[in-house]
Amino acid sequence: MSQSLEGVKVLELGSLIAGPFAGRLMAEFGADVIKVEPPEKGDPLRDWRHVYEGTSLWWRLQSRNKKSITVNLKSEEGQEIIKSLVKECDVLIENFRPGTLEKWNLGYEELSAINPGLVMVRVSGYGQTGPYRDKPGFGSVGESIGGLRNLTGHPDLPPTRVGVSLGDSLAAMYSVIGAMMALYHRDTKGTGKGQVVDVALYEAVFSLLEGALPEFDKMGAIRERTGSSLPGIAPSNTYQCKDGKYIVIGGNGDAIFKRLAEAIGRPDLGEDERFQSNSGRAAHADYLDEAIESWTKTVDFETALNVLDEAKVPAGPIYSIEDIVRDPHYLSREMIQQFQLNEEESLRIPGIVPKMSETPGETKWLGPELGEHTDEVMKKLLTYDDEEIQNMRDQGII
Prior knowledge:
The chain is α/β, with parallel strands linked by helices. The chain has 18 helices and 13 strands. The strands form four sheets. A six-stranded parallel sheet has the order 5-2-1-6-7-8, with helices on both faces.
């Protein structure tokens, strides 16, 4: 099958998470992504978290389907290589601090003069403008200033975090959305003109705060940490079972709540006038949580899940990665895939999201070795010969 982004050429600058994750998403659906890394050590992600045989396993996933070339962006010769590549590319993704590319003579004005159709995706902590633009900003800070950390955890404890780089991942997704809209405008609308997609980590997080701003504006309401419950929506919480395991139950739809009440042996709750709408249930959320947990504590997890599944009440376990790799639904949806790591070993990796019926994504290769594709790109895309390539390598340009 063909892939939806076949023919789209992407130049990925920057390192670590947000920008490269955006490049990964595009590469999974067929875009030709050329990742530019500094010579010698490359992207720091190569050495992050669990390193297996000299390379981070996270890197193998984050850079799947990408081609790695090494270029010294601080050198004039390296900058000329980037400009030559820009002539051939549709999208450039970068996540340096604002002003860095301009310092290297690689800002949008200069690059768009070379390729007016270029879409430049710029990911940073605070965006390309504003009083905070020059501050360094990692995903953790974006999650904090974006309002998410204030809502994460229990009210009597300090704010906590989700154990993944959520802010970076959200920014990456907005980056891809922005790139796709820019390409649609350029190509389908027929303008032929690219543009800048300015993605700030804190704004990507802030965009997920649902009705927090209008609620504060008109009612002075300030959302705070509420632990495992969902404020203003009830019942929706985590409940302990007889065997010590926890079950997540979302019984917050009107009809669903009636089925939940029947399932836990409390049909009276389903008939109670106070609980016929969410506003009434939310006003008595603690009471309903106590009633539900008084039932879950009498049955083991499997029994609770079977009863709620039968009643068509949304419920589920809290999975670790060990649970995930054994789950039959994950397996049937091909979300746990085996890919050859080397001649002797395979590696389990996540499947592709989303599923597309006509142009599905796929893993073609795992994250490459540093500079693995430098010669290929320099020869085939830019027509350098072997002698020129060796000279630049000797000078540390590539």
